[in-house]
Each structure stands twice: as structure tokens, then as C-alpha cells.
């Protein structure tokens, strides 16, 4: 199956134009499948059956793999065998009738508004790095964008006059407004922080590291952890924590779920719906709720 996998990966890379991470993921998953099947005496794609694929998925389950991991493996299988069938390299798709395991939705980590305020207050704004960190944290909480979208923002994506950013993903783009607090943090960063970080160089990126290069997701994750510790927050903060908190605080303040769905860039309403099931209100004080919601309103 090695040659078939190589052909499929070439198709995914050159025709489907998948991202590098997706390519690596598919290659890894299919290599694991091929290794398992080889131990079962199956080395040709045409000899793979639904039973052998189910055996592999059962093996993964016994190994303690998460349902999400098994579902990802199955997605790779279906894409692979579907490709082979279209190319006439097999006569029947053995993965066609296999169903993905049900994935239990985990309740995301949600910070209270007081915790968010404590986190956002941590950056020291007396230097360029602190001004950048403050602007990144404020913008992330004000818009709910993904960390990859935050670190991928270019100067051309920022409209300071009106107060919105433009995010692009998979050929689609959406414009997300931000409020007065984020605008103030961005203004201070652009006026006094960005130029010193660039050290005389030009850059299209809105947020850069101390070498003037684009800020990485890993770099942002480290600074977020650092400020979470400084704020004394006990919850396990990840790069998605402020995104989750943004959504829950908005919905908890009565925002329209369709508007929140659009801002988050969710294609499926059920993905946004999980935030309405989080009992955030029991962790927030009424005054704090209104304070946090105000960060997301334009002009407040």
C-alpha cells in the first residue's frame, strides 16, 4: 500500500492543496493503518475489507485512543479509499459503510469576567513587548478569533478608523468589530510598541516577536500561560480559553447566537450552541458580566 499512499498524498498536496499540517496528519494516519494491515498479512489495497478496517479501529480503541483520534483516522481512510476507487485502483470502497464513533463534546474552559480582567491587566505596558501583549490579549477577547487568525493578521487586515479586523479562512472572509478598549490597546501598540520590535525593518504582520518576525502560535501560548500564572488563575489556560470565554460572556449577556456564530466563524450552529450550555452565569457577578460584555461592543 506504500505506493498507493504516496500517490494519494501527491493528490492531496498538488490537487486538493491541503495544508502542510493536514498532509502530515493524513500521512501519519495512513502509515499506521498500513503497518497494522501488513501485520495481518494485507499489503495490497484491493485486499482490504471492511472487517479489516473495523479491526484496526477496534485496535485503536483498545489502545486507549480518543474518539476524536479514531474519527480523524477514519476520515483519512475514507479520503484514501475514495481516491483509489475513483482512480480505478480498487473496485469497492471498504470504508464506505464504516461510521465514526460518537465524540463526546467536552465543556470548554471558561474564565469568569473577573478572571479575564485580571489576565488582561497583567502585561506591563512600559515597554514594546508589554504593549504588544496587551494589544493581542485585548483583541483576542474582544473578537473571539482563533489564535491562528490572531497571529496571522496583517496590517492590511486592520481598520482602526471604523474598528474592525478581517479574517480569512478557506477562501472565506469575515469582518469582526472590536470595542473601545481593544482599540486603545492597539493604538498604544502601533504608536509606541511595534516600531521598536521591528528594529528598523518593514513587516506586513500586525504582531511580531522581538526579532521583528511574525508572532507564532507557540510564542503566544507561552505568554498567555505566563500572564495566567501572574494573575493567579487556577484554570488550565490554553490559546482557546479567551475565545471560549468571549463566546460564553456574550451569550450570557443576551447576545444573539447567530451573531456570535458569525463572529466565531462557525459553519455549524451546534458548535456555537455548546457555549449556551456552559453554566457561566453561576461563576459571574452581575456587575462583572456587564463589564465584560462592554468590551465587545463597538464604541464602548
How does this model look, in words?
The structure is a single chain. The chain is mostly helical and 300 residues long. The protein is built from 13 helices and three strands; from the N terminus they run H-H-H-H-H-H-H-E-E-E-H-H-H-H-H-H. A hairpin with a 4-residue loop joins strand 1 (158-159) and strand 2. Helix 1 (2-14) packs antiparallel against helix 2 (20-39), helix 2 (20-39) crosses helix 4 (67-86) and helix 5 crosses helix 13. The longest helix has 20 residues, at 20-39. Residues 279-291 have low confidence and may be disordered.
The gist of it:
With 300 residues, this protein is mainly α. The protein has 13 helices and three strands.
Summary tags:
300 residues, mainly alpha, three-stranded antiparallel sheet, 13 helices, 3 strands, 54% helix, 5% strand, elongated
Amino acid at each position: 500500500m506504500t505506493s498507493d499512499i504516496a500517490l494519494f498524498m501527491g493528490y492531496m498536496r498538488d490537487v486538493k492543496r491541503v495544508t502542510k499540517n493536514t498532509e502530515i496528519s493524513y500521512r501519519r494516519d495512513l502509515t499506521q493503518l498500513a503497518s497494522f494491515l501488513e501485520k495481518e498479512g494485507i499489503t495490497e489495497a484491493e485486499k482490504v475489507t471492511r472487517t479489516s478496517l473495523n479491526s484496526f479501529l477496534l485496535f485503536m480503541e483498545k489502545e486507549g485512543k480518543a474518539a476524536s483520534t479514531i474519527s480523524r483516522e477514519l476520515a483519512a481512510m475514507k479520503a484514501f479509499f475514495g481516491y483509489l476507487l475513483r482512480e480505478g485502483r480498487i473496485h469497492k470502497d471498504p470504508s464506505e459503510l464504516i461510521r465514526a464513533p460518537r465524540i463526546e463534546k467536552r465543556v470548554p474552559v471558561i474564565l469568569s469576567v473577573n478572571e479575564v480582567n485580571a489576565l488582561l491587566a497583567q502585561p506591563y505596558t512600559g515597554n514594546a513587548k508589554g504593549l504588544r501583549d496587551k494589544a493581542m490579549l485585548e483583541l483576542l477577547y474582544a473578537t473571539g478569533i482563533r489564535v491562528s487568525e490572531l497571529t496571522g493578521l496583517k496590517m492590511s487586515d486592520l481598520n482602526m478608523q471604523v474598528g474592525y479586523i478581517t479574517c480569512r479562512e478557506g477562501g472565506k472572509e469575515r469582518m469582526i468589530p472590536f470595542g473601545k478598549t481593544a482599540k486603545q490597546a492597539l493604538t498604544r501598540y502601533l504608536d509606541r510598541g511595534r516600531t521598536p520590535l521591528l528594529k528598523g525593518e518593514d513587516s506586513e504582520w500586525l504582531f511580531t516577536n522581538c526579532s521583528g518576525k511574525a508572532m507564532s502560535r507557540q510564542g503566544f501560548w507561552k505568554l498567555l500561560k505566563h500572564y495566567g500564572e501572574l494573575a493567579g488563575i487556577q484554570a488550565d489556560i490554553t490559546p482557546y480559553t479567551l475565545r471560549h470565554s468571549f463566546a460564553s460572556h456574550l451569550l450570557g449577556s443576551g447576545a444573539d447566537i447567530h451573531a456570535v456564530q458569525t463572529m466565531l466563524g462557525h459553519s455549524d450552529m451546534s458548535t456555537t450552541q455548546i457555549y449556551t450550555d456552559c453554566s457561566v452565569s453561576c461563576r459571574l457577578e452581575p456587575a462583572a458580566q456587564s463589564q465584560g460584555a462592554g468590551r465587545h461592543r463597538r464604541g464602548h
